[in-house]
Structures are given as C-alpha cells and as structure tokens.
Write a structure and sequence with these properties.
Blueprint (H helix, E strand, L loop, with lengths): L3 E7 L6 H14 L4 E7 L10 H17 L8 E4 L4 H11 L4 H5 L2 H9 L6 H4 L1 H10 L5 E3 L5 H18 L8 E3 L31 H9 L16 H13 L2 H12 L5 H26 L3 H30 L5
Parallel strand pairs: 1-2, 2-3, 4-5
Helix pairs in contact: 2-12, 3-7, 3-13, 7-8, 9-12, 10-12
The protein binds tryptophanyl-5'AMP (TYM).
The site of tryptophanyl-5'AMP has 25 residues, from strand 1, helix 1 and helix 7.
Length: 330
C-alpha cells in the first residue's frame, strides 16, 4: 500500500531555498505515488504574536508558492492548518501525555525562549505536540523535512509510542523524517553562518527578483582564497559550494572544486555563476507565483477542497483516538 506522506511549512513569510530543498522538493517528487498531505502551519506562526493582516497575507503567499513549485492540489491534499480543527483536538489529547521536561529540552524551544524572553508562551513550549498532532492526525509514515526538524520528529515518534503503550494498542505508526534515504539536508545561509532561515535574515527567497538575488549572492562572505593546494574549505566557503550543489550542474561544481584545489579560484566568478543558476532555477517559480496570486477564485477553491479532504482523514483519527481513550457517547 502507498505510504502516507505529510509535511508543512510555518506561515511566517515567503519561502526560501532552504524550505524548497529541505521539504517542498521532496514532497513534490512524492505526490504522485503516495497519499499526500501538505499544509500551511498558520497556528504554529502564532507563537510570535504576528499582526493579523500579516498572518493572513503570509498564508496566501505560501499557498501560491506551494502551487508555483508544482504541488498539485488534484493529487495531493493541500490545506491550511487552521481549517482542520481536528488537529487541535488531537493536540489537546496528546498534551495530556507530553511532559514539561521533554518539551522544555528541545533545541527549538530553548532557542525561541532565548530570542523572545518577553514572550515565552505555552504555545512555544507545546510547539512539538502541535507538530505531532499535525502528523499523527493523518497517521503519516513519512515526513519530508530538513535537518532542523529531526528532533521534532523524534518527539513525535515518542508520543506515538507512548500513546500505544499507555492504551495497549498498535494505533499510531512511528513516522520518519524523510529525504529519499539520504541524510536530511541543511541549506546554509549566505552570511557564513549555519542554516538559511527567515529569522536569521540570510535567505534567498524563491520569489526574489533576479537583481535582489544577484546582490545577495555577491555580498556573501569570502576571503583571500586558499593558500595551499587541496586545503579544506572553511565553513563559509563550503556553504557556497553546498548552494552550488543544489542549483548548478555537477560539471559546474567540479569546475569550481578543481579551481579551489589548485588555488586558482576566483570568488567573483563562482558567485556570478551561483547567482545565475539560482536565478535560472527560481525564475519559472516566480513567474507562476505572480500568475497564481491574482486568481482568488482558484485559491479559494483549492483551500476549501483541501480542508474537506483533510478533515475527512483527520476526523476518522480523532474519532478512533477518543474511543481508545474512553471518550464515548452515552
Ligand atoms: P519551517 O517553517 O521552519 O520550515 C519548513 C520546512 O523547511 C525546512 N527548512 C530547511 N531545510 C533545509 N535547510 C534549511 N536552511 C531549512 N530551513 C527550513 C524545515 O526543515 C521544514 O521541513 N515546525 C515546522 C512546520 C511544521 C511541520 C509540521 C513540518 C508544523 N507541523 C508537521 C512537518 C510536519 C517548521 O517550523 O518548519
């Protein structure tokens, strides 16, 4: 039987290359062979208290970007998280078996608590339970995500195991973070630091204008170049090569690797090539995005149909979970 595949992206702004190569691309590749759910995690974005208009606009942008990237609402179920209240019920039920110790130890909670010490809300703490509810509500097998979500998937598996153990059932499957049998991917930022991320301000967005992309890439951190043949690359140079690997041809990557190894690398050439290849990759996406975002009627139809399909699957799970937990009608 086909696997159930699910993934989602928080509605905190436009999609960037990290979102695409970490999650969306894998999902798009899998949508025809599997039972697929892809959603916009708007509840998850509430932990930072966004402005209501910005929240709504972000959901629309992401919806258009999903479609522009090739997500097909005829084959995959594409929905907005808040259109499926069953998720919230499962979240509440799972929270009864989720412990303060484990929730407060996650990297994402500690990071957020550090970044917004004035707003360490309960939503932030229980962020992984909501994520587990998203996944378990459709009893997903595979979850295409980037490296940064690995710990959340580990917790989801733990919640599933705990539920099964407590109630003596084999109800929830243990879903895996997925990238075609390969390591989960981490797309780096252009500032020499770790990952590309919205809050890090180091992103290339899928819908950035070519000029903007060029400017961002040309400003990426480099140095004087290697001083000895075949030297290891410092992180900020390795980052540029990682980006090159996802958007350029293997020949291009080999060419610059050879130049590096022979100490003949010219960063200006590398950056020009990288910018050109990112632009070639994003331009069709941006054009489709601009086309789709004026079609309000189509967007409305997609979200209504997606919510209906998602609720059908989710309500079955919640009905069964209630029954297992002893919540039954008289
Ligand atoms: P979010 O919105 O931060 O990121 C969405 C997806 O993009 C991936 N990603 C990256 N992958 C590689 N390199 C990067 N630099 C990079 N930046 C982001 C993330 O790994 C993720 O797959 N909690 C989730 C959203 C969510 C979810 C879910 C995902 C809510 N419920 C259920 C899967 C299943 C989040 O904040 O992702």
């Amino acid at each position: 039987m086909a696997d159930t595949v699910l993934s989602g992206i928080r509605s905190t702004g436009h999609l960037h290359l990290g979102n695409y190569f970490g999650a969306l691309r894998n999902f798009v590749r899998m949508q025809h062979e599997n039972r697929c759910f892809f959603f916009i995690a708007d509840y998850h974005s509430l932990t930072t208290h966004p402005d209501p208009k910005a929240l709504h606009d972000n959901v629309k942008d992401i919806l258009c970007e999903y479609l522009a990237c090739g997500l097909d609402p005829e084959v995959a179920t594409l929905y907005v998280q808040s259109d499926v209240p069953e998720t919230v019920e499962l979240y509440l039920l799972l929270n009864m078996h989720a412990y303060l110790g484990e929730l407060s130890k996650t990297v994402s909670f500690k990071e957020k608590a550090r970044k917004q010490p004035e707003n360490v809300n309960a939503g932030l703490l229980t962020y992984p339970t909501l994520m587990a509810a998203d996944i378990l509500v459709h009893r997903a097998d595979k979850v295409p995500v980037g490296k940064d979500q690995e710990q959340h998937l580990e917790l989801t598996r733990r919640f599933a195991r705990r539920f099964n153990g407590l109630y003596g059932v084999e109800y929830f499957k243990e879903p895996t973070a997925y990238n075609f049998g390969e390591e989960l991917i981490k797309i780096p930022g252009l500032d020499g630091s770790g990952k590309m991320g919205k809050s890090e301000g180091n992103c290339v967005y899928l819908c950035d204008e070519p000029k903007v992309i060029q400017k961002k890439v040309m400003k990426a951190l480099t140095d004087q170049g290697p001083t000895a043949p075949n030297s290891p690359k410092p992180d900020y140079i390795e980052n540029l090569f990682t980006l090159l690997k996802v958007v350029s041809t293997p020949d291009t990557v080999d060419y610059f690797n050879d130049k590096w190894n022979s100490c003949e690398i010219r960063y200006g050439d590398l950056k020009k090539q990288l910018a050109a290849d990112i632009i070639a990759f994003t331009t069709p996406i941006r054009e489709r995005y601009l086309d789709i975002c004026n079609n309000e009627e189509y967007l409305h139809k997609v979200t209504v149909a997606g919510a209906e399909k998602a609720r059908e699957s989710a309500s079955k799970t919640v009905r069964e979970v209630r029954e297992i937990m002893g919540i039954k009608p008289f």
